[in-house]
Write a structure and sequence with these properties.
Blueprint: E1 7-8, H1 11-14, E2 19-26, H2 30-34, E3 51-58, E4 67-73, E5 91-95, E6 98-104, E7 111-117, E8 120-123
Parallel strand pairs: 4-7
Antiparallel strand pairs: 1-6, 2-3, 2-5, 3-4, 5-8, 6-7
């Protein structure tokens, strides 16, 4: 059985209630940073593109972890989606979402963890209400 290192998942399965962007920053390659490299930003090993870390708020009230990070490749920093009218929230969708399981060995007891990566980030279009339907 050949199981890929990065397992494809649907956005709807990971974020059933949607997701909101909190911020975007360059993903640091800690080995490069320790070595004093002038550009310590992480690069995609296959394409060489820069990697960006998108801080995301999971809108699901039953989520085990409210804030997550999703890594996205791109030569320039991804643009933040527009703020949803009347709120401080920026709804987002991730395309090409994958999950990579790993073991976190920090602390006394190892635990299962996972990393999220997407091929693209785009604004989520809020659902439109049919005419005449009240909110």
């Amino acid at each position: 059985m050949a199981v890929p290192r990065r397992i494809p998942v649907r956005f709807e399965d990971v974020f059933p209630a949607g997701a909101f962007v909190l911020g975007v920053e360059a993903a640091n390659d800690y080995e490069k940073a320790k070595a004093g490299a002038p550009d310590p930003q992480e690069r995609d090993p296959n394409t060489g593109e820069r990697i960006w870390t998108v801080r995301v708020l999971d809108a699901d009230p039953a989520a085990r972890q409210a804030e997550l990070k999703v890594k996205v490749p791109g030569e320039v920093q991804p643009m933040l989606p527009e703020v949803l009218a009347g709120t401080p929230f920026r709804p987002v969708l991730f395309e090409g979402l994958t999950i990579t399981p790993w073991v976190d060995k920090n602390g006394n007891f190892p635990k299962q963890a996972y990393a999220l990566r997407a091929s693209r980030m785009r604004p989520a279009v809020p659902a439109r209400r049919p005419a005449g339907v009240a909110a």
